[in-house]
Amino acid sequence: MNAPRPQAWHEALHRLQREGLPHALATVVTSAGSTPREPGARMVITEDAVCDTLGGGTFEFQVIDAAREKLARGESGMSLEAFALGGRSGQCCGGFVNVLLEVFPGNAATLAIFGAGHVGNELVRLAAPLPWRVLWHDSRDGVFPAWATDQPRLACRHAADPQAAVTALPAGSHALVLTHDHAEDRVLVDALLKRSDMASIGLIGSKSKWASFRSRLKDAGHDEMALARVRCPIGMANGGTGGDKTPYAIAIAAMAELLPMVGNAERADPRGLEPAELRQLFN
């Protein structure tokens, strides 16, 4: 059997951007003297993989290390790395290379939706243009629509065991619970509250539904501070739906409630390198 062909940098970049996974793009922008690759050579780096090459040797390992350090720190944006191949990199060719590192930290957030009913469908559609990873769960067979099969940043998960599905969520996820079954909703909220690392928890339903859930969850050992983490009904922080209880209206209100929770993280300036740095490159 033939081994699979290694991905070129542009194929890897497209895949990682589509899936919203953390990665860095390294580009040789200038070189002088004897160097392994010419300006324009590119390489894509992730936490555990490298696609394409800048020429190999110590210089390439240093580029990979620099990129992975930035990924580990959650940095984003551009930086310029200078390599004197005979000095910093200890290579006999002795040239000089400037490498532009563009670091993409991945999805802005992870949204876990439990329930593939009408509201769940509208939520997933509304989330599609956003740079979020969406994990869509349902305990029933065959309920996910055909259009969700190959959507970027969307994973459809059959969650026969709701507690196990909650355990598998990444830390910092935003969870929305809106299944077809109240008992399943309660199991999910109970499991979510047992995790202290969820970014937010939302539950669909009426105030009377939450009053019933609240009493049972309190009996299950959750204190007032924990119960205050649950938003129910969802979408009320932004004024709710104004009486409109259609799935689309509920989904819009729920997403409007989530947006400021996700958007508070500071982002690096996306405009790139300062003009003075660019002038130095081409002098």
Automatic annotation (TrEMBL):
InterPro entries: D-isomer_DH_CS1, MoCofactor_Util/Proc, Xanthine_DH_XdhC, XdhC_CoxI, XdhC_Rossmann_dom. Residues 111-258 form the XdhC Rossmann domain. GO terms for molecular function: oxidoreductase activity, acting on the CH-OH group of donors, NAD or NADP as acceptor. Pfam families: XdhC_C, XdhC_CoxI. Residues 17-77 form the XdhC- CoxI domain. It comes from the Bacteria. This is Xanthine dehydrogenase accessory protein XdhC. It comes from Billgrantia pellis.
